[in-house]
């Protein structure tokens, strides 16, 4: 809809180091994949805000395979300058893993579900009972996908549900 993938981004890695060879192809592919992931997210957010026409093709969900699959498990702690320079008491935070990769892939999965929700509710209206029943089934399917998405998150990233 809004974002176009054919931006022809190219990087000449031989200028950086002549020994890049095959690595430069993989890095360029990774750059294009991340650009596509960003455009997919942006396209879905714009569709959510502006709306979409029934004739607009839905954005194609990208592959979530990324090169840096090493999970960042180093402990994140709050950075403070000089503790004596402030008279305000510092709130202490428990160190938690950074989890950049799992957060990124979970966010792209959530945008994929958002894309399916937008396709469900912004398509051409069909007032028949069959259309209503199929929307109800799709709604339940999306709720199940959202619940399984939530359960696949690492334990420290799972939202705390409020019980009545």
Notes on the structure:
With 164 residues, the protein is an all-alpha fold. The protein has three helices and two strands. It is extended, with a radius of gyration of 22 Å. A two-stranded antiparallel sheet has the order 1-2. Helices cover 46% and strands 2% of the residues.
SSE layout:
Elements: H1 22-50, E1 75-76, E2 96-97, H2 100-121, H3 129-152
Antiparallel strand pairs: 1-2
Helix pairs in contact: 1-2, 2-3
Class based on secondary structure composition and strand pairing? mainly alpha
Calculate Rg over CA atoms.
22 Å
**Beta-sheet strand percentage?**
under 5%
Largest sheet: 2 strands, antiparallel
The first-to-last residue Cα distance is 41 Å
Q: Which short descriptors sum up this protein?
A:
extended, disordered N terminus, 164 residues, mainly alpha, 46% helix
Task: Produce a short descriptive summary.
With 164 residues, this protein is mostly helical. 46% of the residues lie in helices and 2% in strands.
